[in-house]
């Protein structure tokens, strides 16, 4: 893959979003002048970062290359674009003095507006822009499409958050996040730490390595040590912020008129088949599938399955 760094303007004045444009090593071959060349917009889950999409993206490019017949592909992936949410990864560094609005409660609608800001700056026709998101990133994509219909050709949502929690302020996940360890002496210590935690232990080695490389950053107050690139206070604030977005999703589900596919982790504590089926039944072009033996963090557990399902989704919705 060829990676080019980029910075987008966020929806809020002064907010910047660190992004990567990811291209296949060799340009894909089109079957005709009418072949669609898609741009894929990736939105990550809470507490993580854009680079965790790399394993999915590389497998997508490989599948596109392997699927090419003598006359080329019926569609091509021109590029993938992944950005760090305003308070995460490299974006957190860019915005370090401008995130007061996100310290207590970060509305997922704000993230949806940033998605729309990125989509606008990409200047790609809706017929060629596909959204793929994980967890609240997937929910944010769907909210963005409701806010501005026909932004996306289609949306692929990996274990999106759809369940309401009326008490987000004191939810156990908020308390646990605020108590999370947030200092390590070396990257090796961080790797040992995540491998000891059930939340991360089922990830592929590749995804664990990416989290070690990009999920922590030197501590400004002690550069010899490392802290999380998404500070626990911002991760917790995001867990407090879904209410408006979920009301929008459930109140305006019928506005999701583009092709939509939900992927459900079999053991996910966030989504289940019954809820997924109920949700997509209110959309004209919705569908869902379940990945066996997977959790909510399925993207990091089975990137090859996510890539394969996404590629098939693109093939089925030209």
From TrEMBL:
Matching InterPro entries: AB_hydrolase_1, AB_hydrolase_fold, AB_hydrolase_sf
Lineage: superkingdom: Eukaryota
One Pfam family linked to the record: Abhydrolase_6
Residues covered by the AB hydrolase-1 domain: 40-307
Record protein name field: AB hydrolase-1 domain-containing protein
Protein source organism: Smittium megazygosporum
């Amino acid at each position: 893959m060829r990676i080019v760094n980029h910075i987008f303007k966020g929806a809020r004045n002064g907010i910047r979003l660190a992004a990567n444009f990811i291209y296949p090593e060799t340009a894909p071959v089109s079957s005709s002048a009418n072949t669609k060349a898609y741009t894929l917009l990736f939105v990550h889950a809470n507490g993580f970062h854009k680079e965790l999409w790399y394993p999915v993206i590389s497998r997508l490019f490989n599948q596109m290359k392997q699927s090419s017949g003598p006359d080329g592909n019926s569609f091509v992936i021109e590029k993938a674009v992944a950005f760090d949410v305003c308070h995460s990864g490299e974006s957190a560094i860019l915005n370090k003095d401008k995130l007061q609005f996100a310290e207590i409660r970060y509305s997922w609608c704000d993230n949806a507006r940033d998605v729309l800001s990125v989509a606008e700056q990409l200047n790609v026709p809706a017929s060629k822009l596909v959204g793929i998101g994980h967890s609240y990133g997937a929910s944010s994509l769907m909210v963005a499409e409701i806010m501005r219909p026909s932004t996306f050709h289609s949306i692929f949502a990996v274990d999106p958050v759809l369940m309401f929690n009326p008490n987000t302020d004191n939810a156990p996940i908020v308390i646990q996040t605020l108590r999370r360890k947030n200092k390590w002496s070396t990257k090796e210590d961080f790797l040992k730490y995540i491998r000891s935690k059930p939340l991360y232990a089922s990830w592929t080695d590749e995804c664990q390595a990416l989290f070690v490389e990009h999920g922590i950053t030197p501590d400004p107050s002690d550069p010899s040590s490392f802290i999380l690139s998404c500070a626990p206070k911002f991760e917790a604030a995001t867990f407090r912020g879904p209410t408006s977005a979920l009301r929008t999703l459930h109140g305006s589900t019928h506005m999701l008129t583009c092709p939509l596919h939900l992927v459900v982790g079999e053991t996910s504590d966030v989504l289940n088949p019954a809820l997924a089926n109920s949700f997509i039944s209110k959309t004209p072009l919705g569908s869902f599938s379940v990945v066996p033996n997977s959790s909510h963090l399925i993207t990091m557990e089975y990137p090859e399955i996510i890539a394969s399902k996404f590629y098939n989704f693109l093939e089925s919705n030209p």
